[in-house]
């Protein structure tokens, strides 16, 4: 018997078998359909946090290319010039100038001895891949001799080189293609003069030729695409609110050409360039095949609110953003969108008012947005915040955004019951959730399995839970002020946490209808919380597969008798197993693929006796079960 079990589940060790927990049973009935699953259930939440945009999904390799990043932080503490350095005998200063139209902007002014110059370090280094082209653009004036450009470790290795011709006294736009002849993950972009020089530079950009749609870092984009998101909530999170109203996210400020966009202090401790603005987020959603879900500032920041008698412009922003997304090119804001290059509407369906706002102040502001939007755009699905136990009372709420940052044990117990027990009256958007462990900087297996149990419970409550997204989505490993995150990015590596694999597996195995699934599982203790050892549900997929998801929340391998009634008695199946290892196992920069799912194929004659490895998610796809 032991040998047989070992043969079918490589991940189960002999030690685990000796500790097999009491059996459980999962009984699915194909004849009992419990309604449709929530069509838009699994999405992603994109916040500008942890350098998830600049230094994350946005492919730009130069940091602070506009020289506009502030020289002070929000506490008026002086910051060094971000990412730029003099090279050799050179001085590099930033100065503000005014153009003919009176617009003020900052440029770099460089005084350098022959052979010296300046460099940009990118986002903790610039990764260069042999054979890939890199498109450099910049504005320059005053250089009397040519300037050499290289991607290298300040002289050690030239991965790519080029030359900017001598210029004159007027600003000139320069475009240069650098082709990499070597691979190096920590280059700088280095400019060296061919003579003693005194000149100015602005708007420096370096885009890799393999960027998706010329905008998105390919390996990061692929990690997002693998999640098959049905929606993309953006751009925050607390980033939407800002600490004070002057740092609140205002989408209209992000529309000008990139060279004119002003960076903004981000409460996650850096300057955001706004290079990915409202329009680019919509492009990202479109490229991913996800519905955009914009979370607009509700006239509230962490420490200040917009006075009620001055809310008009904020509410107008909400109306205008709908017109920008959905209006035809004949409307004022539809015309702006068309002029930016997208004549077709983006079809905004969901609009969230505020992030984690609550109390009377939120209630009265929500009412303003609600009334204005309902009057003009009744088709928009409005989402209200549900935070600190505050339900909006002033208006009927269609969808409430609720956030859960809890321990893995909470997700396995209270979390699993939360939506089973919730009143049916409201629909929920579980807008942010993640298991947080004491030690889980990278996110570990236990957290991911807690979330898997929770996701089963979300999936089996389609009447109540319409949308859900893990948070946060992306972190640059060099600037992760929040932990854990779903995807980690360094200059040349991208990897998913164990939670990423869980998210991917749920998205890949979404069904169309929910099937009756009765469970009988042993009780189990999770810390001081009581729950069930196994959590499971069953759905019917579009291709006719019966998909059963079974999560073993315990640290012991657990026997399960699995039956599917109402179809054929025998069938082939594919089983995907994730987990079966110690609670704290995780992926990291040093072992990015430490945890991976495994696929097993087999034939079933119901009922089948299975063993669920400790801390694991098993997804069974039973094939061609329907009786014809
Ligand atoms: O996801 C990180 C933060 O958690 C979000 O900015 C905020 O909405 C929540 O408190």
Task: Provide an overview of this structure.
The protein has a domain of 125 residues: Galactose-binding domain-like (Jelly Rolls). The protein is globular. 18% of the residues lie in helices and 36% in strands. It is an alpha+beta fold and 628 residues long. Helix 6 crosses helix 7, helix 9 runs parallel beside helix 10 and helix 10 runs parallel beside helix 11. The protein has a nine-stranded mixed beta sheet with strand order 33-32-35-30-29-26-1-31-34, covered by helices on one side. An eight-stranded parallel beta sheet has the order 2-14-17-18-19-20-21-22. Alpha-L-arabinofuranose binds next to loops. Alpha-L-arabinofuranose (AHR) binds next to loops.
């Amino acid at each position: 018997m032991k040998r047989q079990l070992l043969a079918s589940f490589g991940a189960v060790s002999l030690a685990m078998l000796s500790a097999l927990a009491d059996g459980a049973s999962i009984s699915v009935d194909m004849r009992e359909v419990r309604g449709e699953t929530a069509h838009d259930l699994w999405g992603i939440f994109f916040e500008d946090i942890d350098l998830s945009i600049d230094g994350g999904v946005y492919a730009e390799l130069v940091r602070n290319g506009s020289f506009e990043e502030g020289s002070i932080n929000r506490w008026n503490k002086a910051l060094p010039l971000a990412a730029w350095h003099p090279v050799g005998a050179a001085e590099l200063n930033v100065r503000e100038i005014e153009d003919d139209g009176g617009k003020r902007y900052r440029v770099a002014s460089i005084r350098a001895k022959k052979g010296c110059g300046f460099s940009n370090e990118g986002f903790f280094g610039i990764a260069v891949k042999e054979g890939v082209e890199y498109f450099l653009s910049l504005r320059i004036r005053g250089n009397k001799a040519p300037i050499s450009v290289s991607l290298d470790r300040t002289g050690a290795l030239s991965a790519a080189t080029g030359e900017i011709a001598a210029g004159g006294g007027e600003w000139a736009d320069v475009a240069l293609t650098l082709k990499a002849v070597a691979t190096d993950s920590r280059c700088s972009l280095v400019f060296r003069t061919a003579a003693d020089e005194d000149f100015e530079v602005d708007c420096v950009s370096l885009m890799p030729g393999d960027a998706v749609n010329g905008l998105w870092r390919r390996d990061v984009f692929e990690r997002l695409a693998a999640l098959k998101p049905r929606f993309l909530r953006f751009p925050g999170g607390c980033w939407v609110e800002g600490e004070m109203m002057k740092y609140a996210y205002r989408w209209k400020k992000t529309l000008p050409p990139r060279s004119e966009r002003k960076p903004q202090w981000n409460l996650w401790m850096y300057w955001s360039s706004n290079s990915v603005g409202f329009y680019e987020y919509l492009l990202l959603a479109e490229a991913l095949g996800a519905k955009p879900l914009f979370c607009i500032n509700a006239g509230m920041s962490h420490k200040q609110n917009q006075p009620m008698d001055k809310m008009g412009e904020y509410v107008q922003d909400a109306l205008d953003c709908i017109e920008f997304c959905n209006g035809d090119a004949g409307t004022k804001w539809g015309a702006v969108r068309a002029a930016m290059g997208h004549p077709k509407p983006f079809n905004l369906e969901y609009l969230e008012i505020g992030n984690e706002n609550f109390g009377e102040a939120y209630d009265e502001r929500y009412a303003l947005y609600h009334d204005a939007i309902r009057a003009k755009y009744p088709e928009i699905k409005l989402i209200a915040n549900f935070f600190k136990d505050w339900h909006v009372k002033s208006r009927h709420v269609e969808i409430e955004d609720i956030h859960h940052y809890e321990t893995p044990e909470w997700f396995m117990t209270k979390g699993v019951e939360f939506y089973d027990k919730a009143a049916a009256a409201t629909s929920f958007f579980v807008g942010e959730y993640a298991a947080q462990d004491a030690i889980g900087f990278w996110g570990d297996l236990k957290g991911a399995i807690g979330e898997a149990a929770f996701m089963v419970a979300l999936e089996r409550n389609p009447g109540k839970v319409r949308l859900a997204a893990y948070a946060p989505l992306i972190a640059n490993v060099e600037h992760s002020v929040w932990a854990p995150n779903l995807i980690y990015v360094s200059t040349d590596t991208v990897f998913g946490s164990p939670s990423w694999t869980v998210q991917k597996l749920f998205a890949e195995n979404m069904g169309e209808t929910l099937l009756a699934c009765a469970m009988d599982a042993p009780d189990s203790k999770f810390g001081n919380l009581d729950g069930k050892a196994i959590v499971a549900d069953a759905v019917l997929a579009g291709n006719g597969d019966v998909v059963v998801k079974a999560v073993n929340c315990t640290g012991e391998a657990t026997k399960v008798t699995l039956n599917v009634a109402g179809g054929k008695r025998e069938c082939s199946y594919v089983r995907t197993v994730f987990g079966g290892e110690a609670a704290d196992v995780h992926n990291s920069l040093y072992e990015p693929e430490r945890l991976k799912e495994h696929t097993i194929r087999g034939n079933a004659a119901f009922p089948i006796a299975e063993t669920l490895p400790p801390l694991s998610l098993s997804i069974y796809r039973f094939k061609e079960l329907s009786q014809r």
